Amino acid sequence: MVVPCYNEELVLDETSHRLKIKYTQLIEAGKISELSRVVYVNDGSKDLTWEKITEKHEADKMFSGINLSRNRGHQNALLAGLMTVKNLADCVISMDADLQDDIDTIDAMLDKFENEGFDVVYGVRDNRDTDTFFKRNTAGLFYKLMQALGSQSVPNHADFRLMSQRALDGLEQFQEVNLFLRGMVPMVGYKSTTVYYKRGERFAGESKYPLKKMISFAIDGITSTSATPMRLIFWTGFIVFVLSIVAGLYVFISHAIQGRTVLGWSSLMVAIIAFGGLNLLAIGIIGEYIGKIFLEVKQRPRFIIQDFIND
Ligand code: UDP
Ligand code: MG
Predict the structure, then answer these.
(1) Using a 6 Å CB cutoff, which residues line ligand 1?
(2) Alpha helix locations (H) across 128-264?
(3) Predicted pLDDT at 50
(4) Which of 10, 42, 49, 209 to mutate to test the pocket of ligand 1 (most atoms within 8 A of CB)?
(5) In 10 A of CB 193, how many CB atoms?
(6) 185: CA distance to ligand 2 center in Å?
(7) What atom in ligand 1 is closest to the CA of residue 72?
(8) Coil vs helix vs strand at 301
(9) What confidence tens digit (pLDDT) does each residue in 263-310 have?
(10) How many Cβ atoms from other residues are within 10 Å of residue 235's Cβ?
């Protein structure tokens, strides 16, 4: 398993404790090898998360750790983990550190992988009662918007999923820097399925996704999986252009033929404001894509690993 951690010192004891119990059960039942590992990825935490991880590793080799050179965000941390362990396991499950993902769902995931031959198993929340009203609704809206914009279908899941080794090999070939794994994994293909689980409360600490990060995550999600917003600009521009021809004709006729003085200050102002707004909106959307291109062409590394402790 790969578990990204950013300032999670408060939850690591409990998470490790519960994972230990789960692994022990699964090993006894012969479902996983005793060489199975939990790999914590420390995403440049400011607290004692890395110290906690090394402590876990010292005490029990079931726990391994990857230390990133700095904070790179949830998606990059997760990818760093997945790419590091890719060739060390038949399958990898990714999970949040805060125990919001239900550990008992792992059995069902392994079953789908082992016995039914699925390469990707998504853990999908069948309720989000424990998330705040605000988060639930903004997230719902986001996935609807993604669908409406024609991004390939993104199951409404967090990053709780199982991937087989060959699915991870496929993922490795996606060299993009703007990561939105929920949109990338479906692009990898292979047989996939979903298992449902009840999303719990964060065990301790607070969400590492404040509103600002949520919005930027949503924009990343949309612009990295869909070009529809750009096309919308084109069509809006086109319609506005047609309307302006009609309006121009009207102005010309009322002025030259009917001899009336045309339109006053208010209509002018309305037009200026409306088109000013529209222009800014359009430029903003284009800027978003250009920003993405800018980041992609630089080909910067998506993560840098400082340490990898694993025995
Ligand atoms: N996380 C991370 N780097 C970051 C932010 C978050 O590795 O910059 C991890 C975090 O430790 C957790 C997971 O990503 O394991 C999901 O974050 P969180 O639970 O805070 O998000 P929420 O559940 O509130 O959406
Ligand atoms: Mg959480």
Answers:
(1) 4-6, 8, 43, 71, 73-74, 77, 96-98, 100, 202, 207-209
(2) 133-148, 165-172, 181-188, 211-225, 228-252
(3) 96
(4) 209
(5) 18
(6) 20
(7) 8
(8) coil
(9) 676 677 667 777 777 787 787 778 778 877 877 777 777 888 888 888
(10) 9
The answer to whether the beta carbons of residues 170 and 120 sit under 8 Å apart is no
Q: What are phi and psi of 206, to 5 degrees?
A: -120, 165
Q: How many CB atoms lie within 10 A of CB 188?
A: 19
SS3 call for 38: strand
Q: What does the block give as tokens for 61?
A: 């080799």
Q: What is the pLDDT of residue 164?
A: 96
CB proximity list for 14: less than 8 A, separation 6 or greater: 99, 203, 204
Which protein residues have their CB within 5 A of the ion that is ligand 2? Answer: 96, 98, 100, 202
Among protein residues, the one with the nearest Cα to ligand 1's atom 16 is 96
The tokens describing 249, both together, are 């004709």
Residue 133: count of CB within 10 angstroms of its CB: 9
**DSSP type of residue 46:** S
SS3 183: helix
Determine phi and psi for 62, rounding to 5 degrees.
-65, -25
Burial class (CB in 10 A: 0-12, 13-18, 19+), 276: exposed
**Which residue's CA is the nearest one to ligand 1's atom 25?**
209
